[in-house]
Amino acid sequence: MLKPSTHGKLRVVATSPTGQASLHRGRRTARPSGDDRELAILVTAEKLLEDRPLADISVDDLAKGAGISRPTFYFYFPSKEAVLLTLLDRVVTEADTALENLIQAPNADRDTMWRTGINVFFETFGSHKAVTRAGQAARATSGEVRHLWSTFMQKWISYTAEVIATERDRGAAPVTVPALELATALNLMNERTLFASFAAEQPCVPEAHVLDTLVHIWVSSIYGEGR
Questions:
Q1: Is 11 helix (H, G, I), strand (E, B) or coil?
Q2: Are strands 10-12 and 2-4 parallel, antiparallel or unpaired?
Q3: Which residues bind DNA (predicted)?
Q4: Percent of the chain with pLDDT over 90
Q5: Which of 70, 106, 124, 217 has its CA 20 to 30 A from that of 173?
Q6: Terminus-to-terminus CA distance in the chain, angstroms?
């Protein structure tokens, strides 16, 4: 091995097999951090949800897939339901962050503006269909899931209503039904229509056409003259 000499130069020093073994013993294999284990649980859960509902997934399944023990699982999550809540929160936050970024750089063209906004939800939830389906099912039994979804839906509805009101104030859209009520109906329609398409329910709008269909309805509803 190389060591500095007393004259500032490097000199070669022989290392015995025993010394080499000692060096190897001193190098510890990197152990997964807490964040790594938590992420492994989340990745495992999303993968398993692609094939079966949460009710058919056990804590042992999640622990085994994450490469940890059952007791270690409970160090990170109190239940498998808590894992789903975290997954859903991550997906919803991803969509919300993307929408916030769009708000910072609005598009002047109305059709493109609405298409880009709706596409945020189409792309985000469409990229996490298993979590989306499981989250929708859990709303019937989980108050925490209902609260999470309701909180963000209210935020998105309020934002939509503000944009509709702005379009009306500048004369680009007619004043028809109240902006908040129109925004509520449109967002609830998006939710149901997108989820049906992602799950390939019957009936549903084919996933390849659902974005175009929703944009058409939004633009027609917001800018069309009322009867």
A1: strand
A2: antiparallel
A3: 58-77
A4: 80
A5: 124
A6: 88
CB-side neighbour CA atoms (13 Å) of 172 = 13
Amino acid at 154: Q
Does 100 map to a domain? Answer: yes
- Same domain, yes or no: 59 and 118: no
- Asked if residue 135 belongs to a domain, the reply is yes
By residue range, what is the domain housing residue 145?
84-223
Alpha carbons 11 and 3: distance in angstroms, whole number: 5
Whether residue 60 contacts residue 35, with contact meaning beta carbons closer than 8 Å, is answered with no
Beta bridge partners of 2: 12
Q: Is residue 127 assigned to a domain?
A: yes
CATH number at residue 141: 1.10.357.10
pTM: 0.83
- Count CA within 13 A, CB hemisphere, residue 205: 17
**pLDDT (mean) for 152-179:** 97
